[in-house]
Amino acid sequence: xxxxxxxxFLPFLLLALSGALVIGNAxxxxxxxxxxxxxxxxxxxxxxxxxxMIALGSVVSVWTIASLVG
Length: 70
Description:
- With 70 residues, the protein is mainly alpha-helical.
- The chain has a domain at 10-31 and 46-69.
- It is 64% helix and 0% strand.
- The protein contains 2 helices and no strands.
- It is elongated and about 50 Å long.
- The two termini are 25 Å apart.
């Protein structure tokens, strides 16, 4: 009967999630989310946490690409 959604479903899912982790955190650093009218400036995310998540997502993305290619 085969595997659910193909043999490479989990690596592609992992690639999509790790890519979203990288892109989402990078965009949050570049353009913080909008604030309400009572707040003076937008709340910037923690730089250390964002860079850690970008690094983790990048490593997982590269690893997943390498496992799909090789």
